[in-house]
């Protein structure tokens, strides 16, 4: 398998032993490239990867965590009837005061709770 990173691969000194890896990335630091090659692995660019596996078979795309403000409002991708769909979902509210979206739909005592 080939690890594919859309970004720069940097060295990590906390990693004591390096396994044999095939890594494809936009860029490598000198120390990262040296460690990968010393372990018997190889460093590829995206055009080399496209020639080697045009369909992307035997590749694993690595990415970091999603971090956007909008993701706090999305909720789980389950169903609307599921009671945990809206748990921990941040509402689009004008303000966080006493009068704003605190009654129906937020408390079981006021009809229902989403």
For the CA atoms, what is the radius of gyration? 23 Å
Report the portion of residues in β strands.
Answer: 15-25%
Percentage of residues assigned to helices: 10-25%
Largest sheet: 4 strands, parallel
Mean pLDDT: 88
Distance between the termini: 44 Å
Which word captures the global form? elongated
Please report the number of helical segments: 2
| Estimated structural class | alpha/beta
DSSP strand count: 6
Give the topology string: H per helix, E per strand: EEHEHEEE
Looking at this protein, list some descriptive labels.
23% strand, two-stranded antiparallel sheet, 2 helices, alpha/beta, 114 residues, 6 strands, four-stranded parallel beta sheet
Written description of the protein model:
Helices cover 14% and strands 23% of the residues. With 114 residues, the chain is of the alpha/beta class. The strands form 2 sheets. Strands 3-2-1-4 form a 4-stranded parallel β-sheet. The protein is elongated. The model has no long low-confidence stretch (mean pLDDT 88).
Task: Give a brief description.
With 114 residues, the chain is of the alpha/beta class. It has helices spanning 30-38, 46-52, and strands at residues 2-9, 22-28, 42-44, 59-62, 106-107, 112-113.
């Amino acid at each position: 398998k080939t690890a594919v990173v859309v970004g720069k691969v940097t060295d990590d000194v906390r990693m004591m032993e390096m396994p044999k890896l095939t890594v494809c990335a936009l860029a490598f630091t000198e120390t990262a490239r040296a460690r990968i090659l010393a372990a018997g692995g190889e460093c590829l660019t995206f055009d080399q990867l496209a020639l080697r596996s045009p369909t992307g078979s035997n590749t694993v795309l690595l990415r970091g965590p999603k971090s956007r403000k909008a993701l706090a409002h999305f909720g789980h991708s389950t169903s609307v009837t599921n009671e945990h769909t809206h748990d921990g979902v941040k509402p689009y509210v004008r303000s966080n005061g006493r009068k704003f979206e605190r009654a129906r739909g937020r408390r079981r005592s006021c009809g229902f709770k989403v």
